[in-house]
Amino acid sequence: MKSSLRNMVLMLFVIALVCSAAVAVVYDMTKEPIRKAQEQKVVDALRGVLPEFDNEPQRVERDGCYVYEATMNGEVVGYAIEGTSPNGFNGNVTLMVGYDTNGTIYNIEVLAQAETPGLGDNMKTDDNLLINSFKGKKADQMKMTVTKDGGDVDALTAATISSRAYAEAVAFTYEVYKAIVEEVEAAKFNPAAVLPESDDMFASEIDGAIIYTATKEGHAVGYAIEGSSQNGFNGIVRVLVGYEPDGRIYDIDVLEQNETPGLGTKMCDEDNALIKSLRGKRASRVRFALRSEGGSIDALSSATVSSRAYVEAVEATYEVFKKINL
Amino acid sequence: MELVAIIIGSIFANNVVFSQSLGICPFLGVSNKVGTAAGMGAAVTFVMAISALVVWMLQNYVLVPLGMEYMQTIVFILVIAALVQMVEIVLKKISPSLYQALGIFLPLITTNCAVLGVALLLVQKEYNLLESVIYSTSIALGFALALIIMAGIRERLEVIGIPKGVRGVPIALITAGILAMAFMGFSGLV
Amino acid sequence: MGKNLKFFTDGLIKNNPTFVLVLGMCPTLATTTSAANGLGMGVATLFVLVMSNIVISLLKSIIPDKVRIPAYIVVIASFVTVVQLLMQAYVQDLYNTLGVFIPLIVVNCIILGRAEAFASKHNVWESALDGLGIGLGFTGALTLIGIVREFLGSGSIFGLDIWQGDGALIFILSPGAFFVLGYLMIVFRKLTTKKA
C-alpha cells in the first residue's frame, strides 16, 4: 500500500490499539489462572518445607520477605519464609525456608531461579550439597556463607556464585525469623500478666537479676522475676514469676521451653498441676521439690524431668525475691 | 565494589555471547573482519547504554505505576526500535564521521536480541539507574570483546584449508565453543 | 495442493531455519539444555510464527509500506506477550526455565524474516503453512539439539535415564551448545547435499 503521512500514522495507531486491546483481554483472562498456578506452587512448597500443619498459612510481608505462619490444632508449629537474593548467576534466586519453633531449619524449597542448567540449577533438587548443609540444622549455630568464604555451607560443584546467592537468601530469611521470634518472645514477656492490677511499673536490678516492680498509687503491689533452669528435658526452661509483697506467688508464665509436646509442654497450660501447687502459696512455706521427692509440688504426669526443671526455675526467682525483702 | 563486580562479571564471567547465548546472530554474521567487528561492537555499546537509560525510566516511571508490566515486551521492543532510528538520525546530523563508521550497523541492532535481552534482564535484576547503565555498558563491551576475538580468529581461518562441509558457520560455531570454554575460566573471578 | 505442500516441506528441510538459514541462534543455543526445554521453546516459537504469519498476511494490503516493519513488530510482540501470559498460567515451570528467552522470541529473526519475506507476499493459507513448516523445522532442530545435549550431558532423554551417572557436563553448558550445533550442522549438510 502507498504510504502517506495520514495513513501511516492512522494504521500504526489502529494496529497498536487493536494489539494492545487484544493483549489486555488475554491478560485479563489469564490473570486468574496465573494467580492460581502461583498459589498452588506456594501451597506445595509450604507442605514441603514445614512440619505437618492444618491451617491455611497466609502470606504476610515483613522486612521485605514473605512470611507464612503454620499452626497445628491452633498452636504454631513453624514459619515458612520466602527470601530472595538478587546475586545469582542469572538473576534472582528465591527460596522458601521452613523453620520449626526451635529455630531448626526444617526444609528448603527453591521457588525461582535461572541458574546454569547442570550446575547452579542443581540447587532445586531434593538432595544436594546446599540443602544438606542447612536441613535439620539449628540456624543460630551455623555461619550462613559458603566454605570458601569461611562459612558452614558446602557449595555446589563449579557453582560458587549460585551457592553464595542460595546461602544469602537463607540468611535473609533467618534475619526475619529472628525478628519474628523476638517479637513472639516479647509478646510473651509481659510482667503485668503475672502481677496484680497496677497503674505503673518499673524495672530495677539486684545482683544481675532484673525485677519488675508493679505499683498502684505509689505502693508496690507485686514483683515479677525471671528465673531459669538448664535441666529441662530438652535444655532451658525459663519462667516469669509474680510475687505479692507478702511473698505470695501471684502467677507464673513460662517464657521458654523445648519440652516434649503433650507432656512437658503442659507446663504452659493455664491450670496445670505445677502451677496449681504454687499459685497463691506463700513462697516461704513452699518446699521447692516434687512431692515424690519430699517437696510440696505436684509433678506433671510422665514429665518428671520437665517438672523438676520448672521447680528449679521458680526456686531461682524466690532466691532473688528474698533479696528484695532484705 | 558492587559496581566493579557488575563490570567484571558482565564482561568476562557472564559474557553475553559465550555464557548467556545472547546476540549470537550478529556474533556469527559480522565477525569476519576485525574492523567491522569493532564498528559493530561500538554501535551496540552506544545503543545499549542509551536504551538501558530509557528502558529503566520507562519501567519505573510508566509501566510500574500504571500496573502494566505485562506490556513490557511490546513497549521495550518498540522503544528500542525507535531509539535506534533516532540515534541514526541524530548521528547523521551531528557527527557524520561517526555515522560513517557506525551507520551501517545501526539497523541491524534492532533485532540484536542482546539489546532487548539486557533491557529485560536489568529490570528483572531490579538494578537502580546507575547500575543499569553500568551493567548494560559492560555487557556491550563483553559483546564487542567476543566479536573482536572471534573476528581475529576467523581472519586466520580464511587462509587455511578447511573441509568443505565444515567451512563457514560450523567451524565458527566450533571455534566459539572453544572460546566459551576459555571464558568459563573467568567464572572464578567474581 | 502440491504447491502448498511444498511451502510446508521447504521450511522443514530445504530452508531449515536452524541448520540452513542459521537464524534464531540465541534460543537455539540457550534453551536446548534438555530435550523438553528445546521442544517447549520450539512450540512457543511455532505458535508465534504461525499466528503472526496469518495476521500479517491478512493485513498486508492495508499496512502502508514505509511503516510495515514497526507494524509487524507490534503484531509479533503482541503474540509473544500472549504466549508469555499463557505459559505463565499453564506451564509455569517451563516458563521459569526458559526465562528471558520467551520474550526474546520477539527479536527472533526467523519470525520477522518470514513476515517480511513470505507473509507480506502470500495469501493467508500459504502463509500459515509456511509458518507451520518453518516452525516445525525450528522445533525439530531445537528438540534434536536438546536430545543430543541432554544425552551427552546428563545421560538421559526427555528426563528418562539412558545410563547411570552424570555424563559430560560441558554439553549442558554453553560451550557444549556451540559444539553440538556445529557438528549437527556438518551432519545436516552432508545428508542434504547427498540427496541433491
Give structural notes.
The complex is a heterotrimer of chains A (326), B (190) and C (196). With 326 residues, chain A is an alpha+beta fold. Chain A is elongated. The longest helix of chain A is centred in the N-terminal third of the chain and has 45 residues, at 5-49. Chain A has five helices and ten strands; from the N terminus they run αβββββααβββββαα. Chain A folds into two domains: 49-187; 192-324. Chain A starts with a helix and ends with a helix. Chain A has helices spanning 5-49, 129-134, 160-188, 273-276, 304-325, and strands at residues 59-62, 65-72, 75-88, 91-100, 105-112, 200-206, 209-216, 219-232, 235-243, 249-257. In chain A, strand 3 (75-88) and strand 4 (91-100) form a beta hairpin. The model of chain A has no long low-confidence stretch (mean pLDDT 87). Chain B is 75% helix and 0% strand. Chain B is built from nine helices and no strands. Chain B has helices at residues 2-13, 24-29, 34-66, 72-94, 96-102, 106-109, 113-124, 129-158, 169-184. In chain B, helix 1 (2-13) packs parallel to helix 8, helix 4 packs across helix 5 (96-102) and helix 7 (113-124) runs antiparallel to helix 8 (129-158). The longest helix of chain B is centred in the N-terminal third of the chain and has 33 residues, at 34-66. With 196 residues, chain C is mainly alpha-helical. Chain C has one domain (12-195). Chain C has eight helices and two strands; from the N terminus they run H-H-H-H-H-H-H-E-E-H. Chain C has a two-stranded antiparallel sheet. The longest helix of chain C is centred in the C-terminal third of the chain and has 31 residues, at 124-154. The mean pLDDT of chain C is 89. The chains are: A alpha+beta (326), B mainly alpha (190), C mainly alpha (196). The B-C interface holds B 18-25, 28, 70-74, 77-78, 81, 110-113, 115-117, 120-121, 124, 165-166, 169-174, 176-178, 180-181, 184 and C 22-26, 28-30, 69-70, 73-74, 77-78, 80-81, 84-85, 100, 103-104, 106-109, 112, 170, 173-179, 181-183, 185-186, 189-190, 193.
